[in-house]
Design goal:
The structure holds two protein chains of two kinds. Chain A is mainly beta. Chain A is 0% helix and 48% strand. Chain B has strands at residues 4-7, 10-14, 19-25, 32-38, 45-51, 56-59, 62-67, 72-77, 86-94, 98-101, 105-110. The chains are: A mainly beta, B mainly beta.
Chain lengths: 115, 111
Amino acid sequence: GAGVSQSPRYKVAKRGQDVALRCDPISGHVSLFWYQQALGQGPEFLTYFQNEAQLDKSGLPSDRFFAERPEGSVSTLKIQRTQQEDSAVYLCASSARQGRFTEAFFGQGTRLTVV
Amino acid sequence: GENVEQHPSTLSVQEGDSAVIKCTYSDSASNYFPWYKQELGKGPQLIIDIRSNVGEKKDQRIAVTLNKTAKHFSLHITETQPEDSAVYFCAASYGNNRLAFGKGNQVVVIP
């Protein structure tokens, strides 16, 4: 596609519910990233995939957060038993190359509100 | 870990004037420094980037300068226009695959 696409754009979850956030990266992009952006803050790194391999998940805040990219393209970020502190915008980014750092392009994000 | 700081937090400029945003970083191993523009309700948009082997880079009205010794880099926007109003984030590469972002600068261009 033309850019990184994320769905849904908005998600309201009751505390304790599980949610799944989807990311469609730019076609052919090897690297995929998830970031969390709290209100008024910069994005914070969550996890990184190179093709289908999750090479870095050290930014995931708890074991309630899980991400996958089984076929090396679409990725899903799952949050189990959501808490109010999970409320944030979840951003997905992709980049064309691996190894040497290169341009990362972000999607429009999914705004998660936990009530 | 990497710590990126931006200042000022809010910047108001008259249309046509220049805007400068400064960032500092802590990790001397950082070698890639992008700038992103984020408009309300949208994702960050890459506007310019610079690598550690370059001191300055320009793209039309936007330029970025990097001082590796002092560990700071700056975004310069000349001839500002109302559509330049947005939040601007600087970032520094951290490890092999992360970006550490600053907290953002709100730029307001006054017509």
